[in-house]
Design goal:
This protein is mainly α. 66% of the residues lie in helices and 0% in strands. The radius of gyration is 15 Å and the shape is globular. Bound molecules: fe (ii) ion (2 copies).
Length: 182
């Protein structure tokens, strides 16, 4: 397993934008907490975290090729596992043709867009994630002009893929993001 430090260095090499790095850390953290909840072992927890951290690795430098550049040319030579690479591939099925199937793939898909959306919601609130209710999020989901670039269908499909009610998934992530991201 490649160390977290090395994966962070890799992320910083390819991504300069502070908000994209923050998004990657949020998704990594969400993946880690879900992996723990699912009783994964420590190696698996690291894998889930790493898939979250690196899922948008090539977005800034290769927006047109994302995530194909990362999964074909950047990650394999560095020794990242097939599970991580497949999960990154499956977070963008419309670009790669791969649908989320394995548990890690489904959770990554389910955490990605929703984390981004919830971050946008947190920025509108003086207390951020603290005191946020699932309703604060679902209300905004119905507001077409709010974070208009976020695909609502992907958020709904994500919750379905992990067999959760959307409100339950949102509540889980509110609790995750109230903690300092590590
Ligand atoms: Fe992406
Ligand atoms: Fe993302």
């Amino acid at each position: 397993m490649i160390s977290r430090e090395k994966s962070f260095d890799l992320l910083n090499k390819y991504v300069k934008g502070v908000s994209l790095i923050h998004h990657c850390k949020m998704v990594a953290f969400a993946m880690q907490v879900y992996a723990k909840q699912l009783n994964k072992n420590s190696n698996e927890i690291d894998e889930w975290w790493t898939a979250g951290l690196l899922h948008d690795l090539d977005w800034e430098m290769y927006p047109d090729e994302h995530p194909n550049k990362a999964i074909t040319s950047i990650l394999p030579p560095l020794g990242y596992s097939a599970e991580i690479i497949e999960a990154i591939k499956a977070h963008a099925p419309e670009r790669t043709g791969k649908k989320p199937e394995s548990e890690m793939e489904r959770y990554l898909f389910a955490c990605d867009e929703l984390s981004g959306f919830m971050h946008a919601v947190s920025l509108m609130r003086p207390t951020g994630f603290v005191g946020m209710k699932p309703k604060s999020v679902t209300k905004k989901l119905k507001t077409v002009n709010f974070a208009a670039n976020v695909a609502r269908e992907d958020i709904r499909a994500g919750a379905e893929l992990i067999g959760k009610d959307l409100n339950e998934h949102i509540l889980f992530l509110i609790n995750v993001f109230q903690e300092p991201i590590s």
